[in-house]
Amino acid sequence: MMANPEAVILGGGPAGATAALLLARAGVSVALLEKKSFPRPKVCGEYISATTLPLLDHAGVGHEFRANAGPEVARVGLFAGRATLHAGLPKPDGPCWGQALGRERLDTLLLDAAVRAGAEVLQPCSVTDLSRERDRFCVRAISRTNRAGFAIRSNVVIAAHGSWDAGTLPTQPVRRRPRPNDLLGFKAHFVNSDLPSGLMPLLAFPGGYGGMVHCDGGRVSLSCCIRRDWLSLLHARRGGDAGEAVLAHIIESCRGVRESLRAAVRQGPWLAAGPIRPGIRVRECGGLFRVGNAAGEAHPAVAEGISMAMQSSWLLVERLRQWKEHGGDVRQLDRVNAAYSADWRRCFAPRIKASSMIAHWAMRKDAVAAILPLLRCFPGLLTWGARMSGKARRVVRAD
User: Fold this and answer.
1) Which of 182, 191, 238, 337 could form a disulfide with 245 if both were Cys (CB 3.0 to 4.6 A apart)?
2) pLDDT at 380
3) 3-class SS at 325?
4) Is the dihedral angle over the CA atoms 385, 365, 48, 74 positive or is it negative?
5) pTM for the complete prediction?
6) What is the pLDDT of residues 197-213, one digit of tens each?
7) Are 118 and 24 in contact (CB under 8 A)?
């Protein structure tokens, strides 16, 4: 095990793996702790915007990503009631469009690249405590393989563990009582779908919203969020598997989904997680940094989760790289965190606000019905909405 690395990362998803890879390439000794064994599935929309492709190229995995991901996504759509509307996505800054890749493949791809760059990965292990000891942090963890406990000390800790799991770490949400308006996430893959290639529609239905996109292996990923009270109502009415009850509700509410999945077959089980926690959580706290959903989360309605996670890690590593080049004085970490937090808010706060407006509109049948006539006359408004969600804003400047 690496003795007292310069940085410790908690979580090996896209945000954590990207941070580990970029830090290792910058000459920083880094240890990453991940609680799950890879590959593993994950509730996620699986789409990566074109604005993140330069980062994948910079990380050395762009070619492999493009070779394995689904077809390029050049059109956005809306499936709501009987309406099936399409429009072009905003033109990306580059020759390629965004694509989708299953999380079981994407996460493994990124983490393997981090290991090749020199990061040490401790997996699977559970972090049990994070505390400060003078000017350093102490991370205590337990291996899930042999139940052995260990501790790692470092001046820099990066929380990349997401936001859905409650816990005792200072960067984790506290457990709270279930609420009727909690949004719970579901995802499944389908084969033999009739969803047009290159189209990524927003699914608007009472009590929730979702999306569909072609990913790897000829599969279509359908992911959605639904309010807890609506899920309870559907489960009581239909019984059986919760995921199938949600799917039946979506098919009943959206003609576009009904037509896209009429001959499709689900591949694998439904996955469920949540409640999701949209909002801004980035904090200025010395050498303790947050990336990915731990820093802030947009409603999945805008399909920007993976892109924001990876881009936030690039923003942080750029600040830490400059800090190290100027001597790496631990007394300056407060300033590093303040600068990173300002960068994060400038780049992502508008996306989070836009996603909230889109999500709450999509969940209300009356609100959707009121706007549909306008969208039918001016489908380019879908393009404008995609631009507002960050589809054309380039954050990463890496060659």
Assistant:
1) 238
2) 94
3) helix
4) negative
5) 0.94
6) 999 999 999 999 999 99
7) yes
